[in-house]
Amino acid sequence: MKTTIAQVSKHEGEKVTIGAWLANKRSSGKIAFLQLRDGSGFMQAVVAKSDVSEEVFQTAKNMSQETSMYITGTIVEDTRSPLGYEMHVTDLEVIHEAVDYPITPKEHGTEFLMDHRHLWLRSKKQHAVMKVRNEIIRATYEFFNDNGFVKIDPPILTGSSAEGTTELFHTKYFDEDAYLSQSGQLYLEAAAMALGKVFSFGPTFRAEKSKTRRHLIEFWMMEPEMAFVEHDESLEIQENYVSHLVQSVLKNCKLELDVLGRDTSKLEKVKAPFPRVTYEEAIALLKEKGFTDIDWGDDFGAPHETAIAEHFDMPVFITHWPKDIKAFYMKPDPNREEVVLCADLIAPEGYGEIIGGSQRIDDLDLMKQRYEEHGLTGPAYKWYLELCQYGSVPHSGFGLGLERTVAWLSGVEHVRETIPFPRLLNRLYP
């Protein structure tokens, strides 16, 4: 019977065959311990000389790292194993013998590992990070499907910027100018006017020359947009969504979090509601903590976000930012025209902003004014203006950066480990 490592708990006491690669091995006299991986997980296989032919035993002892095989044996309980089971081998068949595999159990530098990212993904830690990423994606679809959202796929090639910035990748679209999307938000707003509550999950691109541990050139975003939803209700949806992600990872990625050495006690207390502070209150808090150079109208950097998150030791919303440092489409606070109804959600433990969101402008005259202020005069923005012209309603939305969220929940330091093939300022290979 062929099975996978993830399914061996269903086959205790049975003889099964698994297609696997050799991650590592050690041998001692008449026994060889093979550390196997098959994509679904990792487990130990024990090859005793007395249980197999001499040829099989010698093959097991001499097998090189990353050699592929079909391995057959009986599944037995092993309480010392994180998996809880191991295989007692009766036979194995080499499919392909790997020679001089470059990533060995010794330490390697980051650049070497990044140059071999196509192979580094096979390691136990990287496997665990990708499984956490997968669980966040699965839980995202679960949350939005259960809450009545419709999945929408906005275009990746666009004729304009979603936020009026210049950090765009330009290309030619036949005889027109086009850009790689930095957000699907504007298109999702149009979809929300048709379908009520929508969300997208896809790649976004920022031509930002940043080298920090929080930035990628190509990254993935979850972007919901909701008709008839105002600012405070949107914040409740955001905190319930993030709480759902955290609890899902804790429930379904126990082995992976253990491999990563993640302190899960810090994640276990992440439950809605989250604390909220206004931008003004955040400024005052930062000044109390010694950031005397921060003033009204300044954006926050990584040290500022970290200090605020550490104060609360929980994800925290920073709301009501100055209008002049936020995007043109954000709705002003009716009581204070100089600030907008928006919020950034800052993750604890120094992982920074994971969500940016706002209530959107729904007034045609105000949107026309914003167009003038931001110089949005081209025909590429005409369709977006029409959303305010034909049956506009209060509506809100937000975007969650997948890789920063993966970094936070898995506890890895740099977002380059949270995406299969990272695109960084100086890296387009492999």
UniProtKB/TrEMBL annotation:
InterPro entries: Aa-tRNA-synt_II, aa-tRNA-synth_II, aa-tRNA-synth_II/BPL/LPL, Asn-tRNA-ligase, Asp/Asn-tRNA-synth_IIb, NA-bd_OB-fold, NA-bd_OB_tRNA. CDD domains: AsnRS_cyto_like_N, AsxRS_core. Pfam families: tRNA-synt_2 (PF00152), tRNA_anti-codon (PF01336). This is Asparagine--tRNA ligase. Belongs to the class-II aminoacyl-tRNA synthetase family. GO terms for cellular component: cytoplasm. Transmembrane segments: none annotated. It is an enzyme of class 6 (ligase). Residues 130-430 form the Aminoacyl-transfer RNA synthetases class-II family profile domain. It comes from the Bacteria. Its EC number is 6.1.1.22. GO terms for molecular function: asparagine-tRNA ligase activity; ATP binding; catalytic activity, acting on a protein; nucleic acid binding; transferase activity. Keywords: Aminoacyl-tRNA synthetase, ATP-binding, Cytoplasm, Ligase, Nucleotide-binding, Protein biosynthesis. It comes from Ornithinibacillus halotolerans. Homodimer. It catalyses: tRNA(Asn) + L-asparagine + ATP = L-asparaginyl-tRNA(Asn) + AMP + diphosphate + H(+). It is found in: Cytoplasm.
